[in-house]
Amino acid sequence: xxxxxxxxxxxxxxxxxxxxxxxxxxxxxxxxxxxxxxxxxxxxxxxxxxxxxxxxxxxxxxxxxxxxxxxxxxxxxxxxxxxxxxxxxxxxxxxxxxxxxxxxxxxxxxxxxxxxxxxxxxxxxxxxxxxxxxxxxxxxxxxxxxxxxxxxxxx
Length: 155
Known about the structure:
4 helices; 4 strands; Hypothetical protein yfbM fold; alpha+beta
């Protein structure tokens, strides 16, 4: 298995952390804080990811690595399968892996927020998924206030 994949075998704990930042340009940001970029001090954790994507949205699980398979092709195959399992949530589908950075432009931040708000209505029976959605909505709200993009940085 590629170390960069989020794994949930037999309901085990999903590891990883995505730190949320407001950035001036989410398409070119490569780490570090530039003037005007803001660390929101919000962490989207492995348990948040699991509650939202596996428990609430029932996303497709990572498929096994095939011996000799190109790692890039393996990642792309799993990315596509994950995203196809939630086609009505394309912005959320970009958070397919806890070890891959994800950037959103200001326009995409609004789309991400709308997707999260839509899910809040069906997440009432899952308090951890609700908490995960609140983190993303709070980050989106802060980015929208200043007209910035949003960047989720893996640890």
